[in-house]
Amino acid sequence: MPNFCAAPNCTRKSTQSDLAFFRFPRDPERCRIWVENCRRADLEAKTSDQLNKHYRLCAKHFDPAMVCKTSPYRTVLKDTAIPTIFDLTSHLRNPHTRHRKRIKELTEEDLKKIKERLLVSSIEQLASKKDAAVEDSSSTNEDEPQLSTEEKEFREYLRSLFEVVVMLGEQSIPLVACKASEAEYMSNNFQALLDYRMNAGDEALKKRFQATAVNTEYLSATQQSQLLDICETTVREEMLMEVRESRFFSLVTGDLVEFANEKHLPLFLRFVNQHNVLREEFLDCMLFDGDESALVERLEAHLTDRWGLSMEECRGQAHKATGTSTTKMKAVAVLLVEKYPLALHMPCSHMALNIHLANSLPFPNVQVVMETLRRINTFFRTPFTQDELEKAISTHYQKNEEKGTTLKEACGSGWTEQHSVFDVLLDMLPPLLLCMDNIRDNDDGRFADSVAADAYSFTETLSDFEIIVTVVILKNVLTFTRAFGRNLQGETLDVFFAANSLTAVLHSLNEVNDNIDVYHEFWYEEAVSVASVMEIPVMVPRLFLRKQRAADVGEIQAEVYFKEYVTVPVIHGVMQEVEDMFCETNLKALKCLSLVPAVMGQMKFNTTEENYADVYRNDLPNPDTLPAELHCWRIKWKHRGKEVRLPTTIHETLQLPDVKFFPNVNSFLKVLSALPALKLEDNKCDTASARLQAYLDGMSAKQWNKSLAMLYVNTHVKHDLDVMVDKYCRLYAEDDPEAEAEAESEEVAEEVAEEAAAMK
C-alpha cells in the first residue's frame, strides 16, 4: 500500500516518487512539535502511537541536513529532525482542495510560541552543523585515511571484474564453454569477456593485464570462486533483509541438483513483503549429505546461524522431492514439525497434488513410473519427437479421430505435471510404445543415435506388464483426490472448500480399502485389456519369480501378486500421505481463509474463525481482542454498500487501506498468505523455481554453477557493485594478484638458489 504525505497541500505518495517517507515520532513531545508545524488541526487529538502507525511526512518537508542516506536503499532522519518546510498558501488559489487536510488558523499566542521554538531550533541546528563539520573533518583525517592511487586502481579493477561476473550470471553464460573432445581447446568465457572490455577501452583492466602473456589465465580458479561467492552473498543478503522485516516465512525445498559432483538441495523462502505482496525467493543450495538428523541440523544452521532468521517464525514447509530422496525429506519434515510445531508440512502449490502423492510412495514400480514421466517430459521437447508422437496417436486412434484429437491437445507442453496425468498416460501408452518403436527403428535416419537409444530404453519400460498395472492402479486410486487437488491449487474460495471436503475424500478412499477385492478385480481386468492392445504378455515380474524359486515357495497367480504388491500398498500409501499432509492443525489453518471477505460472503457471513484461531494466537498483536475484532470485520463487509466488491484473495484484502485498523486480521492474513499450499498471486509462471529449472535446462550439467544460478534466478534483486568491492577488500585484502605473483616469483627464486647451493 502506498504511503501518502500528511502535510497540507502536499499530494506526494510513495508510488510516484523515490522520496523517503518518515513516520511521526513516538516520543510525545517531538510528535507534538511535528503536528504543530504541520498545522493539521485534525491531528491534534490523536496520540503519538496512532500518528506513528498511520501517518507519514515526505523528505521534502525537512532540512536536507537532517536527512541521512545510510545505504543506497535506506534513508533515515537524525534524532533531532523536525519538519520546517511547508506550503501553507497554495490552497488559497484553489479553495476546493482545502477540505482534505484542513490548515489550522494560528492565534497570536500560537505565533509567539512558534517563533520562540524556531529560534531555539535554529540555534541548535547551527551548533549541530558546526559540530558535525568538525567531527567530519577529524574523522576524515583520522578514521578514514585517503586511498592511495594503487588502491583506487585496484578497486576500479575489482569493479570491472564484478560487472563481468554479474553479466555472466544474469545472462546464464557459463564461465567455461563445453568442449566436444578432450583434445579440443576449452574456451574461457570469463577471460574472453575481459579481453572484450579491454579492447573496448577499460583502462582499469588494461593496466592490470597489459603485461600478461597471451595464453595466461587472467584470474585463477580460486580468485574466480571468491568473486562468485561475494556476488552470491550480496544478492542473498538483499533478499534476507526483506525476509527479516516481514518476520514470518515458509521453507520450500526443490528437487536435488548436482553441483561439482555433489548433490545439493535448493532452498526457497516464502514471505509477505512490506508492500503486502507474496514472494517466493531462491536463497541457496544446501549440501545434501548425511542422515535425516544431520540434514535438519544443517538446515537450522543455514537459516539461523548464516541467515539470521528464527525457525520459531517458520510457519510452513513443503518439499518437492522425487525418487530416492522422497523418504529422507519426509523424515526431515517430521523432525522439523516435532521441534517447531507451527512449521506445518504441506504440499507445494507448484506441484499437482496427485503428482506429489505418487512421488511420496516409496515403491520401486511407482518410482519407475514417475521417473519415466519426467524423462518423457524431456524427451518430447524437440519438434521432431513431438511430431512423431502425434503421428503415432493418429495411427493408433484412426478409427476414433475425436479421441485422437483430444489426446493430441492433452499431450501438449507440461502434460506430465497436470492433475489428470495418469488418465492421459493410460490412454497414451499404446501410441507411446508405437512412437518409441518408430524412433528406435529410425529408418529414415532423422534421429540421432542417442535419441534412438533413449527410445529403446522407453520401449523396455513401457512393455513391462508391471508398469501397465501400476499406471492403471495409480489412475484409479488418485481419481478420488484429483478434484480435491485441483481445488487446492485454485482460488482462495476453492482452497477453503477443499479444506472442508477432505472428510469426503478420506471416506471414498476408506470405502475402496474396505472393498479392495472388488475394486482390484475391475482394475486388473483394465490392465490386462490395455496389455492385450499393446501385445504385452501378462506375467509376474521376473525378479519376484527368481526370489520365489530361491526360497522354494510355490508359484503365485498374477492377479494375486499385483493385488498384494501393487494395489494394497498404493491405496494404503495414498491414504496415509493424505492424512499426514492434511492433519487437524493444517486443516485449521486452511479454514482460517474464511477471513477473506469473498469467502465470508459465500458463507453468508456465518463463519467461525475463532474456533481455528488458536493455531496462530501467539502471532497476533492483540489476541485478547480477536473475537470483538472479528465481529467488527464481519459487520464491515456484511453491511457494505452495494457498489463495494468483496475482495476474493488474501492479496486483495491486504491491499485495502483500512485493513490496518484490524491489526489481528492483518497479521492473520499475512501468516496465512505465506503457507506453501497457497498459489502465488496472479498465477505467476516466472517463479524462482521455474527460473532455476530454466537455468539447469539451458546448459549441460558439467557447466552448472551454484553462484551463477543464484544470479540468474534473482535478476530482479538490486545489487551494488561498490558493496561487492568493499566486501572483497575486507575478506581477501591479502589476495592481491600482483602480491601473489611477487610472492610466487620470490619462492621460485629461493628454490633455484637452494638447488644451486645443493649442487655446489
Automatic annotation (TrEMBL):
Keyword Ligase among record annotations: no
Lineage per the UniProt record: Eukaryota, Metazoa, Chordata, Craniata, Vertebrata
UniProt xrefs under PROSITE patterns: ZF_THAP
SUPFAM superfamilies, per database record: Glucocorticoid receptor-like (DNA-binding domain)
UniProt-recorded name of the protein: THAP domain containing 12b
Molecular functions per Gene Ontology: DNA binding; zinc ion binding
Domain THAP-type: 1-86
Keyword Disulfide bond on entry: no
Compositionally biased tracts (Acidic residues): 736-754
Spans annotated as Disordered: 130-150, 736-760
Organism superkingdom: Eukaryota
InterPro entries in UniProt: IFN-induced_PKR_regulator, THAP_Znf
The entry's keywords: DNA-binding, Metal-binding, Zinc, Zinc-finger
Pfam family, one: THAP
